[in-house]
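Hi there,

I know you've been waiting on this one. I reran it after we fixed the sequence typo, so this is the corrected version. Both the input and the resulting structure follow.
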Amino acid sequence: MVSIIIPAYNSGKHLAESIESALAQTWTKKEIIVVDDGSADNSFSIAEKYAEIPGVKVIRQENKGASGARNTGLKEAKGDYIQFLDADDLLSPDKIEGQIMVLNGSSTQLAICRTIHFNDGEDCQNGIETRDWFCTDYTDPVDFLTKLYAGDEVLPGYGGMVTIHSWLTPRKLIDAVGPWNERLSLDDDGEFFCRVILASEGIKFSHVGFNYYRKFDSQQSLSAQKSKKGMESAILAIDLKLGYIKAKSQNSLIDRVFAKHYWWTGVLAYPRFKDLSKYCIEKAKELGYSGEKYVGGPGGHAIAGVLGWKAARYIAWYQQLFKRSWA
């Protein structure tokens, strides 16, 4: 049995399409749990239309955030495997079945598949398939995560993003590591799957099936927000992930990888959140980060080369304020 958990918050534009992709799965032993997280739009009424279909359950709750909605879904889920699916993303019909086949009953491994990125308003079939280094089986969870977090700056050819709905996860692994961290709003999936992967015996790659990741130009998604809450969440997620991995390995490469993450986050937090920036910059240097690398566009890099990264960030910040005042 596979439980497909769909958290929804003001997702009326895309929710029906997401539910339909869950219903279309060729793996028939499934249940679909839609959790409306206090939406102010028509998300709940859209979900309710599916509630009479056998195997579909719709829950409405006060707003708790995406992690809270996923945890509500987990409490209701009866499946041996869990498929998380955000309300604006999609699955190919054979996605779950392909992963069930490669897992072959395993409760100690999780499965991954290929991702197709597509722009909102376009047909997902016209999207771009990513062919990442992690599209293969992996037996070393620490090595997988180190390469995933490293990026070209530390390990050329590695890095990237694994979408939430790329995974199919045994319920026993989730029970072993605990629920989603409801303190997190940004990188909540990164923190959660870091725990899950480290508790596993490895990752199985399915050549069958895709997940479709919708990209937005409006930058209104939670992942694009730069609020203090979002920045605090991102930093807490880095702190937690570093602690989890260091508990498993003392490889010095891990320090280099996370020094980069702290530095980047510290630069991006400046000058709006100077306290958070200071914390991250100090953490980066504690882990051995050297240099004064700017994080941003080519114009900012040119300014940073002359005036330093702080001046470049100030200019970038005031440009944003100016644009907002004229919007």
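Quick highlight: The first strand starts at residue 2 and ends at 8.

Best,
R. S.
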